[in-house]
Every structure is written in structure tokens, then in C-alpha cells.
Design goal:
With 141 residues, this protein is mainly alpha-helical. 77% of the residues lie in helices and 0% in strands. It contains six helices and no strands. The radius of gyration is 16 Å and the shape is globular.
Length: 141
């Protein structure tokens, strides 16, 4: 058996229903934030879909690379309201990384104000979503 298969099986077994909800919710939030960001600039029709993808995928990759390091899929951390600062911190680092990746993909300059606005709005959105998740998880327990 290949080592990657073993790791995949282990990761799949460790994933709980709530962890899957976190992954799905985080992905949906990033998609909604991307769409809202483009809509606020009047760029929400289908012709802007490729540009949206060039922001969404680097942001999602950056988030899912950094979030586990901050424990953002650990049940003990995500169920503690005192830890709601962690998603904000994660996004403060993920958004600039995504901006750099986006700049490389587009062969475009990296604009610091764009990274700052992306970090702030994404951090706020992630804290709100994770707060809703926390409320739901506590209520259903």
C-alpha cells in the first residue's frame, strides 16, 4: 500500500461530521466573500468568473494551508469562544499569501491595500461564520 493512501485513510477516519462542516462552511464563506467583493465593484456577472477564480483559489489554498497550524479544525479549539481570535489571525496571514499567489498567477503587481482590505474583510467574515458554527455546535451538543 502506498504511503499517501495510508495518510489519506487516516485523515478520512479522523474527519468527523463537524470537521466536514467546518471545511464546507469555510469554503462557502470564501466563495461568498469573493462574490461580494466583486459585486461591490460592479463585477459580478459571469464574464468575471475567471478573475473570481484567480482570487478564490489562492485564498482557499492559503486558508487551508494555514488554518490547521492554528488548530482551526481541532474540536477543542473550535468549541471554545475564547479562541475566536484564531480564525481572524489565520486570515490575517492567509490573505496576504493569497494576494501574492494571485499576483503571480496574473503576472500583476501586488497591491498592499488590496491585501489589507482582503485580510480585514475575510477575517471579519471568518470570525462571524466560526461564531455561528460555535453557537450551533454548542446548541446541538
Amino acid at each position: 500500500m502506498w504511503f499517501g493512501d495510508v495518510l489519506f485513510d487516516l485523515a478520512f477516519q479522523l474527519m468527523t461530521k463537524r470537521t466536514w462542516l467546518l471545511y464546507a462552511g469555510d469554503t462557502l464563506l470564501l466563495a461568498v466573500l469573493t462574490l461580494v467583493g466583486f459585486a461591490t465593484h460592479g463585477e459580478a456577472d459571469l464574464s468575471f468568473l475567471p478573475r473570481m477564480a484567480v482570487l478564490f483559489f489562492p485564498l482557499a489554498i492559503s486558508w487551508f494551508l494555514l488554518a490547521p497550524a492554528l488548530g482551526l479544525f481541532d474540536g477543542k479549539i473550535v468549541s471554545n469562544p475564547k479562541q475566536l481570535w484564531r480564525p481572524a489571525l489565520g486570515m490575517v496571514f492567509a490573505a496576504p499569501l493569497a494576494t501574492v499567489l494571485r499576483g503571480f498567477l496574473l503576472s500583476a503587481p501586488i497591491i498592499p491595500i488590496f491585501a489589507a482590505v482582503l485580510a480585514g474583510t475575510s477575517a471579519l467574515g471568518m470570525v462571524i461564520w466560526r461564531g455561528v458554527y460555535l453557537f450551533w455546535a454548542r446548541k446541538s451538543s
